[in-house]
TrEMBL record:
Substrate binds at residues 57, 107, 137, 210-212. This is Do family serine endopeptidase. It comes from the Bacteria. The keyword Manganese does not apply. Pfam families: PDZ_2, PDZ_6, Trypsin_2. Keywords: Hydrolase, Periplasm, Protease, Repeat, Serine protease, Signal. It is found in: Periplasm. It comes from Sinorhizobium terangae. GO terms for biological process: proteolysis. Residues 250-326, 354-446 form the PDZ domain. Belongs to the peptidase S1C family. The active site is at 107 (charge relay system), 137 (charge relay system), 212 (charge relay system). Its main location: periplasm.
Length: 465
């Protein structure tokens, strides 16, 4: 009898060990040699026609080495012969619309005068730019030819898990369409590049120069990311590549198709900082995760939702928020005109609040004015700063005052070093609260100008005659 029980236990264990590990979502781990030898070829055939090469060409002007030389400028009548040359860049793109809508990276086509895409069948077709944004490093192109075109459907990047198999498709080094395989190595990566977008999918699938704008594809043949960057000391792949999540791509494409001239992100009306281990201990949090509220603007969406300094945002619509960049990403993918359920932690307790996502408001008229006359600001265009104008100028939306939006070349303002995005705080002891005030003060006949300007958070005080 004892032998029979042992035999039964041994049989059950043997059966259990022979069944592949199956996750709750039906994903399995390959265990046999036959399973390990399965091919990605059917998936590549399904998606390859929708991956294109992007050729961008721009004309640049090279200044003559004699520019600025009084003798040669007098000889040529103040018009020095400059040389122009063409520069080309190569990247990849993914067709996501049967009418020829293509997604790529902004840095692939930045400054381009002429853009073409090369399809898998060898055709080269011209494109026009529908929308581009350097902050999220995305661009949407439209092929100037009749379709229909093969596409890769945009998937749900929130369904991606660490360990999922992926394919990276593109045109590395200009050698032609190339496919590499790997897994999702990490999610919600930030501080990857110098831009202000910080939410990437990390993969060990080989991504090399020329892959930028190509697709990161899951095993269903869906686009889960746009390849954008690598960490490398020598310029090649070291198994650390990054892709922009498909859910942001989806919102960006929708904005382009709606005819918007720019990609507008929601205005929150609050500033946030990462939760460090010291902050987590002080607030009684179990781990350093989330976005710490540091300031809340009056009459903004955050204030209306009840957010206060010292609170920590830990989730949006039930999805965990790892850092402030993740919070910005989550709210951006929800979209303007919608509401987000935000989970906040305070005094060891959590609760949900509803945050209405709106466009940054124009709280005061811009009243743009060109400053003229005999003063240091002559040739500068200034305007009243509001959250909307700050958003357009890529400045913190909490700033107020009179901001320089443009400097005329060769003007007194240019000669003293005034720059766009400078905020004029005072002139000759008078606080500058509106552009009209600045125009009035600079119209006075002064022999000495005392100027106070804020630039990138630093106050600069100068004297001019």
């Amino acid at each position: 009898m004892i032998f029979g029980r042992r035999a039964l236990v041994t049989f059950v264990l043997a059966v259990a060990m022979s069944v592949p590990a199956v996750a709750q979502d039906g994903k399995t781990v390959p265990e046999s040699r036959a399973e390990m030898q399965l091919s990605f070829a059917p998936l590549v055939k399904q998606t390859a026609n929708a991956v294109v090469n992007v050729y961008a060409e721009r004309v640049v002007e090279r200044r003559s080495i004699f520019s600025g030389d009084p003798f040669f400028e007098e000889f040529f009548g103040q018009r020095m012969p400059n040389r122009t040359e063409k520069q080309s860049s190569l990247g990849s793109g993914v067709i996501v619309g049967r009418n020829g809508v293509v997604v790529t990276n902004n840095h692939v086509i930045e400054g381009a005068d002429d853009i073409k895409v090369a399809l898998a069948d060898g055709r080269e077709l011209p494109c026009k730019i529908m929308l581009k944004d350097d902050r999220v490093d995305l661009a949407v192109l439209k092929i100037q030819s009749d379709g229909p075109f093969d596409i890769i459907p945009i998937g749900d990047s929130d369904a991606v898990e660490v360990g999922d198999l992926v394919l990276a498709m593109g045109n590395p080094f200009g050698v032609g369409q190339t496919v590499t395989s790997g897994i999702v190595s990490a999610l919600a990566r930030n501080q990857i590049n110098s831009g202000d977008f910080g939410f990437f999918i990390q993969t060990d699938a080989a991504i090399n120069p020329g892959n930028s704008g190509g697709g990161l594809i899951d095993m269903k043949g869906q686009l889960i990311g746009i390849n954008t960057a690598i960490f490398s000391r020598g310029g090649g792949s070291n198994g650390v590549g990054f892709a922009i999540p498909a859910n942001l791509v989806k919102v960006f494409v929708a904005s382009a198709e709606s005819g918007g001239g720019s990609f507008i992100r929601p205005f929150i009306g609050a500033t946030f900082e990462p939760v460090t281990s010291e902050v987590a201990d002080a607030l009684g949090l179990d781990r350093a995760r989330g976005a710490l509220v540091t300031a809340v603007a009056a009459d903004g969406p955050a204030a209306a939702a009840g957010l206060k300094p010292g609170q920590v945002v830990t989730a949006v619509n039930g999805i965990a928020v790892e850092h402030p960049d993740a919070l910005g990403y989550r709210l951006t993918t929800v979209g303007i005109g919608h509401e987000a359920r935000v989970t906040i932690s305070e005094n060891g307790k959590t609760r949900d609040v509803v945050l209405k996502l709106e466009r940054a408001p124009e709280t005061s008229p811009r009243d743009e004015r060109l400053i003229e006359g005999r003063n240091p600001f002559a040739g500068a265009v200034v305007a009243n700063l509001s959250p909307r104008l700050a958003e357009e100028l890529r400045m913190p939306t909490s700033l107020r005052g009179v901001v320089v939006t443009e400097i005329n070349r060769g003007s007194p303002a240019a000669r003293i070093g005034l720059q766009p995005k400078d905020i004029v705080r005072s002139v000759n002891g008078t606080e500058i609260d509106t552009s009209k005030t600045l125009e009035s003060v600079t119209a006075e006949d002064a022999s000495l100008w005392r100027v106070e300007i804020e630039r990138d958070g630093q106050v600069i005080r100068q004297f001019f005659k």
